[in-house]
Structures are given as C-alpha cells and as structure tokens.
Fold this sequence. Notes:
By secondary structure, the protein is of the alpha/beta class. It is 42% helix and 18% strand.
Amino acid sequence: MEFEEWEPYYLEIVKEFGYDRKKDERAAAILDKVLSGQRIEPRHLMQMIDGREVTVAGNAQSLRAELDGRRGILITADEATSVALEAEAYPDILVTDLDGRVEDQLLANDRGAVAVIHGHGDNVAAVKKWAPKFKGSVLATTQSRPSDGLHNFGGFTDGDRAVLLARHFGASRIFLIGFDFEHPSPKDEDAAAKKRKLAWAKRLIALADNVRMQ
C-alpha cells in the first residue's frame, strides 16, 4: 500500500482515537535516529515475499495450537513472536511496536528474522529503550508520511500492518493464524478501546483480498 492509499484511513484513525499526528511523526523520527542493526531496503522484503504464500501470526490464545498449520513465510505480529519461539517456529519477519516481550523479538532478530519496527506517538519510551538493541536486519516504519529512512506500507495494529506488508510485497496468499477480532487480551487495560482497534484491524485486513483464515 502506498501512502496515498493509506492516508485517508490514517486520518480517520487520528480523528476517532484523538491521536496527534505530530507526535507520530516525532516518534518515527526518533526511531529512525536510534534504530541499530543492519538497515535493509524494501526490495529485500520483495525478494522474500513476492509470489509466495505467507502466514501472519497474531497473538490470540489460539495461536499455539494453530502454528503447526503455518504455510510459507512466517510473519509474527508483536507478542506472537514469543509464542512462536516457544514452539520453535522461528519467524522470517516480525512486525512490532515494541510491546510484549521485546527480549524475544531481539532473539528472533538475532536468529535471522527481519524486524520491522514501528514508531508512533505512544511508544517513544519503548523506542528509546529497545530500538538501539536490535543487531540483525531491521526496517523502520511510521503510520504517518514516510521520509528518509522511514517506510509506510499501511496498517494500524501490528497484525494488520503485517498483513498489509505481505500484500504490499506481492504475497500470493496470506493465511491468518492466532487472530481474534472480537475478544481483547485480558492484559489490555482499556478493553473498549482495544475492541475499536480490533474492528479497525479487521477492516484493514479486508483490503487484502487474498487473505484466508487457517
């Protein structure tokens, strides 16, 4: 997804949730400045994904039981990385805004997973703490207009960002495992806001017409 296609959705999200676009841009700029590791170009992801089947793993409680059914390239969304590592299902790509057990994301990156790391207005502290610690292949993303070393392939939550990334880079089919759009995780303090985010995730994932639930 190019930014021109994504921006109308982003403006809706900013309005609905009361986000500050300038804070998103500041967070992304900080990420671009402090991110360590080996920066890769988007063409690297194209080489990995184009024409191939992709499985995107979300962090619903069903994930562990569904991992055996994964197909093709495995992309884990944030906390799904920890579940995948515990099951010895090592991701090829991980998409994260540095929530969850980031130590596991660092480990997966060290073992070869490309880390697609996202900066937004609410995660500046996590960006400053964790982004300099990645040592493997990395790519920085923003939900606002991309510039310099920042990229935007569309998406709001980690799960739908992972799906839209697979779509952007030409996945032949995208299989979803560990996704539950109706029930927020018990750890979420604001369940009502999380439900609204899940509704957005479902809407955005529907933009990829080659998505299948496993």
